[in-house]
Structures are given as structure tokens and as C-alpha cells.
Structure prediction request, 405 residues.
Amino acid sequence: MSAFDARLRREPGPPLDVGSEPDLVDRIRAEITADGPITFARFMQRALYEPGLGYYRRASGGPGREGDFLTAPEMHPIFGRMIARQLHELWTAIGSPPRFVVREHGAGTGALALATLRGLHADGSAVGSVIRYQPVEIDEDRQAMFRQRLRDAGFGDRIEPAGAGPIVGVILANEVLDALPVHRVVRRAGRLRELAVAVDGHRFTQVEIEPSSPALAARLGHEGITLDEGQIAEICLEVDGWIAATAVGLQQGLVLLIDYGHPAAELYGARRPAGTLMAYVHHRAHDNPLINVGRQDLTAHVDITAVERAAQRNGLQTVGLTTQAEFLTGLGIGELLPAAQLDPATTLESYLELRSSVARLLDPSATGGFRVMGYGRGLPAGVRFRGFEFRIPSRRAPSSTADPT
Prediction:
């Protein structure tokens, strides 16, 4: 199974033990020895973001063909070209402002940024002359690689530091929310319990404790969720703060979030008795988050209901919720295949790569099933965006029932 399929379907393979970061293990073990078991959210925070040692604080690993998993921007530049079309559509809708900012969270080494900027150029969009790109990336080495990559491609003058001030434009996050730390809970004898991390000899282990925060039960209660007996689930309390901080940064425009997730009723349904937490290393998925500490990605499906509520609490209007397949189709990804066939510069190899990538981006069992969430501020009344309006017809419906409006 590919990393794409595993990230969507959550079907783990056998654990791949590549060893842990020893200094990070020592630090976490010392905290547990001193204070007792820690929440999984605390463990995940340190495993992913510990300065100098956490998974996302290292230049190696992460997304990419040479990394541990592959995201849509690394698969093919066509994904960024579709994002470029969404930028152009938004820019036009808000009156073509003379300065238009893209603030990308989790910008990495610039795969999405470069493809997006090139996409604007390929489409002849006037946004390309007024755009400024603000990468948000916690790892300094990746920041440097981002800047160098765009400079080498001739877009160095488009980069500027990401600030906290509000922007006119787009705040973009592709597969970011799934890496926010999550608490793990289980229903036991009719009560909510929390799964914490303890030490057993030389290894980390899982123990049950009383919930560390009343907000855990409150989140499930507000969403009308009652877990089945013995059911394990993940609750991301940090999404509220992340959305609040993000919303403050938008003066006018769109918050565009792309990730794998579900509404609460589906996310916490009986089909997921063990939750959705997964680990990724060397393009393989497994379900043991307590090994390879600092050297594997940890991720859980996003609670779209929680995201929606947080956005509304912070003054953002819901623009749309759709699948990646519908979003990309509405923006015209299908048009590029016949255009590529007619382009004399297209080689057979590049065409086949393009066709394969498009199929993967639209495949509902791969990344086509990811969710695209749009939240706006200061948008014209009644504005509609093609990516959020298109609907793929049901398999049981005739193709003539498709409504691209």
C-alpha cells in the first residue's frame, strides 16, 4: 500500500523500528520519572516539535520521495497550479488589490509555493505581479531551503517574512492540522478515561488515567458524541487555539485548509473503534506511536466539526467544504491533460507522469477523499468559488446529472 492510501484508509502495516533520538527519549523519560505519566498530547508535542530533536525540527525526514511520506505538492506541480487558480479567483472576487499575500503554514522546502507561483505565470494571472509569499515553517534549515529554492527559480523577490499582522489574501495549510498534538481517550465502564504515556523499563508504554482536562468530555458532549464501550478516540484541543491565531491573521480573504478528516459523527463512529492515530516512517504506516521517537511522523484525522465551530467562533464565514477531488475538478484540473497532449514540448514520460498524478489526486481512495475547508472574511456577499461548487455525481446517477455550477 502506498503512503497515500495508508494516510487515508488508516490501514497499518507492521512497525518499522528505525530507532529513536536518544537525547529526546532521555528528556521524556526524565519528565515522566519526575512527574508521573504524561498525556499523549504532551508526548506527541515533544516527539514532533522538541527543539533540535523532534521530528519536525530536523531537516531530514518529513514529506517527499526521499522522506517518510508524500503529500500532494511533492507528487506533482499540477496541485500547486490548481491552488494558483484559486488564488486568482479570490483576488478577482475581492477587487484585485495591489498587494496579495499567501501565508503558508507548514511551507516546508517550497514545493507548493514554487508550483503555485509557476502556475500563476503559466495561466497568465495578474496576481503574479502583486503576490507576496510568507512561509511559516518552524525548522530553520527548511526555511533556508525554501528561500533558496524560490530564489533559484527566480521568485526570490516574492518572499517575505511571515508576520502576525493581518493580511489580504490566503492563509494556506496543507496537511498541517493532522499533526497537531492529540489527547487519546477511551470509554471504560461507562466513563471517559485518558490514555497516557508511562515508562516500563527501557520502553514507553500506555496507561489509563483520569482525564487531564474537562475540555475532553466537553468536546465530545458539544458534538453529541458518546463513545462505545472500549472505543479509543483522539481529541485535538489545540485546533481551537490554532484556528483562533490563524483567524486573527486574516483581514480579508480566505483560510484554505486541506487535510484528511471527517465530521465528528463519522470520525467517532463505530467504524473506528481504535481511533485514527498512525505513525509514518520511510513511506510505511504503522500503529505504534511509542517507538522511533523523534524519527517518525505522528498524525490523526481531523475533526472537521471542531474546525468549523472554531472558525465561526473567530468570526470567519464558511465558504465551503468539499473533497479534494471535487475541488480540483471544479478548478479545471481535467483540462490540463488534453492541453498537455497537444503541447509539442510534452514528452511521453512527462505526460504519463501527469496522468498518473491527476488520477491519484482525484482518486477517492487516495488523496481525492481529503477534505478541503474554506473560511473567509470580508468577502463580497454571495461570492462563489468554482472549487467549492463542483460536485462529482453519485456512481448510481447518470453522468448527465453532474452540476458544475
Notes: Residues 1-9, 396-405 have pLDDT under 50 and may be disordered. The first strand starts at residue 38 and ends at 39. The CA atoms of residues 316 and 376 lie 5 Å apart. The chain has two domains: 3-11+62-179+239-267+308-401, 22-57+181-235+286-299.
